[in-house]
Design a protein that fits this description.
Strand order of the largest sheet: 1-4-2-3
Helix content: 40-55%
Shape: elongated
Order of helices and strands: HHHHEHHEEEH
CATH superfamily of the largest domain: Regulator of K+ conductance, C-terminal domain
Radius of gyration: 22 Å
Number of domains: 2
Structural class: alpha+beta
CATH architecture of the largest domain: 2-Layer Sandwich
Number of strands: 4
Largest sheet: 4 strands, antiparallel
Number of helices: 7
CATH topology of the largest domain: Alpha-Beta Plaits
CATH class of the largest domain: Alpha Beta
């Protein structure tokens, strides 16, 4: 009889654990939706980079999103070095925008079109997955040519 009680206790604890886990996931998702609606990710894009580390389910959600955030470090020899953002015309060429620049220890959020790209900067882009991947290769000096506008 003690065995049957242990089994019943185990299943009760399992049910409670699964219920709590479900509520945690729902709260995490609700928090993401609220933060997104409030524009937190637009005001501080670095929060989005931290958010997926909270739980694997968030990473799975981001895989389904059409726009992606991507981080690239500008390397020596990159063809974008020294260019103004307006010269790059990334929205038309690749379907992406640079939404933040990490220069030294400072963040430039929503940089102006007159900002120049410097070696060592970290660029945060938002946009089409293929364009983001292509831009990362360009920023890191692996691709030596900006494609013509689509």
């Amino acid at each position: 009889m003690a065995h049957a009680g242990s089994l019943a206790s185990f299943f009760k604890m399992l049910r409670e654990t699964l219920t709590a886990y479900t509520f945690n996931l729902a709260a995490l998702f609700a928090g993401f939706l609220i933060a997104n609606q409030l524009g937190v990710f637009r005001m501080a894009p670095w929060t989005l980079a931290l958010y997926p580390a909270v739980h694997p389910i968030v990473s799975a959600i981001f895989e389904k999103v059409e726009e992606r955030l991507m981080k690239a470090t500008v390397k020596d020899g990159s063809i974008i070095f020294g260019k103004r953002l307006s010269e790059l015309d990334l929205a038309a060429r690749m379907g992406i925008d640079i939404i933040a620049i990490r220069r030294n220890k400072d963040w430039i959020i929503n940089p102006k079109e007159t900002e120049r790209v410097l070696v060592g900067e970290i660029l945060i882009t938002r946009g089409a997955p293929l364009g983001s991947k292509e831009f990362k290769e360009i920023a890191e000096g692996r691709t030596k040519q900006l494609e013509e506008q689509y």
